[in-house]
Amino acid sequence: MSDSFHEQLKVDSWFLKSDRRLDTELVDKLILQLNRIYPQILTDKEATRFRDLDVPTCVRLAELLTYLQEKGEEACREFYRALHLHVEDVYFSLPTRLRRHTDSVDPVPSPAVIPTDRFVLHNQGPLFFLSCFSAVAGAAFLYYYGDFKTVSGSSSALGLAALGIGRKIREVLIWYT
pTM score > 0.85 for this model? Predict the structure, then answer.
């Protein structure tokens, strides 16, 4: 093991905080494991604080991870042991575990990727979305109210006459389309 458990927990913290498989019951099991087996790591008072159901689970987990990192190497190692014992699927899907597995298969080291932005599909803002949505909604509106019986001009093909829109506005909308 080249990395210490403390360093691994720093890398894995973002994953553990965002993983939805760690629900209230599993977080409580981890806290009880650390409290009962290793009371020097997590005292009764601290365990009660981390098991407070009035606080959301994600907040309690984040506070627990921060606390364990402050506590030191042994606390981080015992947290990993409890995680392996109670939630194996989460343990084996941790980024540090996956990296170790790929390192054993592929000896060429690859840098660990830690996403800074969460699920970013594009970098345009909300105005881009609104403009695309309004263009599509306008096209659907014109198609729905379109009058295709007369073929005398492009304005009737778009159905703008049925909408009661003035001539100048129709020309601008036709030019825009």
Answer: no
